[in-house]
Amino acid sequence: MSKKSASNIGNQSKAKLGEQIRNIADRLKQENEVQIKATSRILGAAAQISENHDRLINEVVDMVQEDLNKQSQTYQKDIHTVDILKQDFKTLREAKDYFKLKATSWESLAKKLNDSSSKKLVSETKSQSYQFFESNGMEKFEHDGKISEGLTVHLEEDVAKIFPNAQAVNEALRFLIRVTNKSS
Question: Which H helix or E strand runs over 150?
Fold first, then answer.
């Protein structure tokens, strides 16, 4: 082989090697652009998730605040003072007739009303007893002497610690329903 053909072969293999390197560099550049686009999309999605999360948290805070305000208003309605009674009724007799209570003064009427509303509040918060029946494959439960059909759900121990009765579970589920309905 002559020197020319040996140098020609060397030049051709250098050219092939250079072309391979350029092809690899082009592929790396394309992959880098794809990775940049993917990262950009991921960051955009993360920003959207964060924005939705903040909005959802704000909605939940608003709903909890509304619930607390309603509960506070309910308790405020149950508190009776002499001044409030005098504003609502012209005479003691009118107030006694309205509430169907016997009292000798505005103070005694307010005391009786507050005592009865606190008893009512205690009786509403007492744990309620339920008895379950199963007939014809359909579960029924008795509550305050009334039998009605219902769904029995068995709570796991960690959940039962947080939700001690059916009322607590139902309130939590209703709250969840409101949250999901507002965010939809």
Answer: none
